[in-house]
Structures are given as structure tokens and as C-alpha cells.
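FIELD: query
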Amino acid sequence: MPQLAPVVLKDYAAADHTFSPRGISGGVATLVQSNGVPIADKELSISKTKTTTGRSKVLVKLKVPVVQDATVNGVTRPTVVRTAYAELTLTFDNTSSIIERGDMRAYLQNLMASFFAADAIDNLLELY
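FIELD: result
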């Protein structure tokens, strides 16, 4: 069983972002990158459960809010202006091997690095 530990992820500009453990609740491990203002926390979570058919299900979620200071009646406070969400669900049969599961992870890593995914995600281009 992996221990909850900080994770460093790179952004589009290849800058490092450290997500530190917040805790585990209900089987969901949560990590955050915080600047001290909770509404601005970037949040990463991962959980592993069993489906009703007995398959192993891994769910990874990432939430990245964009926060700007808003001034109302002379009072400035941080305000969420939009939030990006990502959700990845992987489901494996109990007879799957570590190589099959590792292949799935590698396929997804390579897909995210492909021009195909970059155009669909970064440029919001439709497929044809």
C-alpha cells in the first residue's frame, strides 16, 4: 500500500507544483497546493474502491481554481472566477496483471503527451 506523500507535478510552463497531503477520509487521499488562502487550493485526490462486480476502480481527480482579488465597497478579498476539473477513472478486472495495469498507465501518459490530446485539450479543437 503506497504511503500518502507529497507529489510534484509540472504545469504547462514546466514549473513544479508541490501537492502536500491533506489527509485521507473515506478512503479518498487528498493532496493540496496551497498559498494559504483555502479557496485557492489546487486539490488532487485519489481513491481505490471495488465496483459492484468486484473490479478494482481507481479514481483520480484534480481541481484547479483561478482566484483573483475582487474589491467591493473598498474591501478586497480573493474570489474564485473559474475552476478547471479533471477526472480519470480506471477499472481493472481482478485477473488483470501488474503489466496490464502498468500498460494502461503508460498509454495514458503517452496520450496526454501527444499532439492529438494537446489539440483537443489545450486548443479545445473538435475532432474530425
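FIELD: remark
The first strand starts at residue 7 and ends at 10.
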